[in-house]
Specification:
Methionyl-tRNA Fmet Formyltransferase, Chain A, domain 2, 7 helices, Rossmann fold, seven-stranded mixed sheet, single chain
Length: 312
């Protein structure tokens, strides 16, 4: 079948590449406009556009989908289906009826769990042991459309969002091609999403990175995993910001009267901090503002942390 592809970041690239290699024909790619990138703010095309151009596929990068010009482009493309992977904007309802098989979205969770913009990160923050990828038909809601296919994926111990995302992208790419194959063969029937277990993730924000030491140790570790690489995790110490890159849950020392955030031990193996619900956590890798990232033993050489000091 003829396919139009909507996508923007690196996560969408494996699906575009798999579609190009499949029996289906990608007739048009729609992506977001070029953006300034890096210290020198060089105007740079999205990863999907770079791949599409290398494959000599026509690209559109509209600032908005409000213009009816995109309607004409879709009709002229002759698309039987539109595949959407991390495009970055809601699809207007008027477009959904143009292709025969509708808009097929790849979503990196097991819907209806973790709808919304940050499903990979929040699966980790919530401590899920498994996640997955889902293909669904887009409707006018937020990831509420009928389900097509799903693939369950175990989350590896210690896996971060930075590690999990490319793994799901590759698995999802295969699932998208299989979905189009079955739609073309008329062997796939969309089914309504169940309401049980439905939740919607929030957009990631910078203020999520601030450590709340009243949380249990395991919850802080899950937040570090989910917020790597962005927005990360940080605390304050001696009036400055300290980024945290390594955490381990440890057996808490005998409980005293110290408040969460208080240092209960400091040695070359790590700085142990009291957390919520009587738990404790070891900080193993940090970075002071303006300095390099370092293991905590190197940090302790320059800053002699004492028991009883507090992180903010």
């Amino acid at each position: 079948m003829k396919v139009v592809f909507f996508g923007t970041p690196e996560f969408a690239v494996p699906t575009l590449e798999k579609l190009v290699e499949s029996r289906h024909e990608v007739t048009l790619v729609v992506s977001r406009p070029d953006r300034p990138v890096g210290r020198h703010q060089v105007l740079t095309p999205p990863p999907v556009v770079e791949v599409a151009r290398s494959r000599q596929i026509e690209c559109l990068q509209p600032k908005s989908l409000k213009s009816t010009e995109i309607d004409a482009n879709l009709k002229d493309s002759g698309a039987d289906a539109v595949v959407v992977v991390a495009y970055g904007k809601m699809i207007p309802g008027r477009l959904l009826e143009i292709p025969r098989h509708g808009f097929v979205n790849l979503h990196p969770s097991l819907l209806p769990r973790h709808r919304g913009p940050s499903p990979i990160q929040w699966a980790l923050v919530c401590g899920d042991r498994a996640t997955g990828v889902t293909t669904m038909q887009i409707d006018e809601g937020m990831d509420t459309g009928p389900l097509l296919l799903q693939n369950r994926v175990p989350i590896e111990p210690g896996e971060t969002a930075e590690m999990l995302a490319p793994r799901l992208a590759e698995i999802g790419a295969v699932l998208v091609v299989r979905t189009l194959d079955e739609l073309e063969e008329d062997s796939l029937t969309p089914r309504p999403q169940p309401t049980d277990g439905a939740n919607t993730t929030p957009m990631l924000r910078r203020n999520f990175a601030k450590v709340d030491w009243s949380m249990p140790a395991r919850q802080l570790i899950n937040r570090l995993r989910g917020f790597t690489p962005w927005p990360g995790l940080y605390t304050t110490f001696r009036g400055g910001r300290l980024k945290i890159f390594g955490l381990e849950e440890v057996k808490p020392p005998a409980r005293g009267k110290e408040k969460p955030g208080t240092v209960v031990a400091a040695d070359p193996d790590g700085v142990v901090v009291r957390c919520g619900k009587g738990t404790a956590i070891k900080i193993t890798e940090v970075q002071r503002e303006g300095k390099r990232r370092m293991p905590v033993d190197a940090f302790l050489i320059g800053e002699r942390v004492s028991r009883g000091e507090a992180f903010g």
